[in-house]
Amino acid sequence: KECTYRVNVIEIKEQRLPDLDDEFAKGVGEGFDNMEALTDKLRGDIQTQEEQSAQRRYEEKVTEQLVSDATIELSELMVEHEIDHMLYDEQEALQRQQIGIERYLEMVGKSVEEHREEVRTVVMARMSQTYALRKLGELEGLTIDSEEVDQEITTLVEEVGGQADRLRRSLDTADGRETLKQTLLRRKALERLVEIGKGKGPS
Known about the structure:
The chain is about 70% helix and about 0% strand. By secondary structure, it is mainly alpha-helical.
């Protein structure tokens, strides 16, 4: 059907962007002396982001190659335990959003069995990487001493601000320090793997 509309235009607005000049630069963030300084900062930030992205892609590539070349036998009992743990964490996260696991599976169109198999794939890949990097660390003689754990605790505590004391108490325990030690060992093994991939000797 044809219709006729009558519209009254009350107001017309136009978006006017500020000129990209020194005055604009002085109002960005904490302020810059001029546009050139702002441009240099943005260029540096973009370059840093691209370098970090390239580093992560390379780390993923060499780790995949390490796992592919390794012979790894995973305990089925441990795999099932990790799957249960990951599914529990997932349900906890969904509950915080007031979404039940049944509703979530309905939304993504997956059955319980299909979802568990997807999680199994993730868990097995994660465990394979962990064991491969751990073995590499052993072969390369990598270690983490108490001072390195202390430094990591200090770094993490400084990042949280108001919750610093509480976080330090939770990290500075036998279990907390062991977890940090394993995290640092994995990080160091990954750094060594990247060096090997680039043909470098131990640093």
